[in-house]
Write a structure and sequence with these properties.
The protein has 3 helices and 15 strands. It has helices spanning 166-175, 182-192, 197-209; strands at residues 18-19, 29-31, 36-37, 46-47, 57-59, 64-65, 70-72, 110-112, 117-118, 123-124, 129-130, 135-136, 141-142, 150-153, 158-162.
Amino acid sequence: MKPDPNKKYPISGYDKEIYVKPTLTNPNIIVGDFTYIADSEFESHVTNFYPWSRDKLIIGKFCQIATGVEFMMNDANHQMSSVSTFPFYTLEGWNMEAPKADDMPFKGDTIIGNDVWIGQDATILPGVHIGDGAIIGAKSVVGSDVEPYTIVAGNPARVIRKRFDDELVALMLEWKWWDKPADEINAMIPTLTSTDLESVKEKIKEMNTNKNLYG
């Protein structure tokens, strides 16, 4: 049996973990193959996201999203350039026109890379970019961009350490294992799960040189 990115439940008989992509209904949420969340649905984890919202949530392949994670989008923001931040224009009975788009804080799309692990109850704030292979600690509040293969944690989230040295990070970003076909990834699993990082470097160098060599 081959892994199927369009199958909702990746674990037979268990409905509290789903592949996100086949469940999406909002066209402004874009999620890659095999990204899962430890829940029975996903879109309620994307908050302050309305039909008129200008931003997108873009998540790569093979991400692991724990229970309780929240992606807070730009429409959580209030006008901060005026004396009051109260959103009169959104509520019935108040005589205020909607502020111009340029008067509202807007940080752009929220973009999560590939093979990112987001820990339980973490909050990702609007416009954040998280690089491939990053790890977000449980209960973290991420308001700034996170470099690839970096571990962050805390409120606000701060860098704990790089996962690997610069050479291995560069090799991983060149390799892009998540873009390979599923059968090739299956053959690569011994490399992907190895803790012998020096041998992993040599194997990736081989694979980056010879695109037909896997395993």
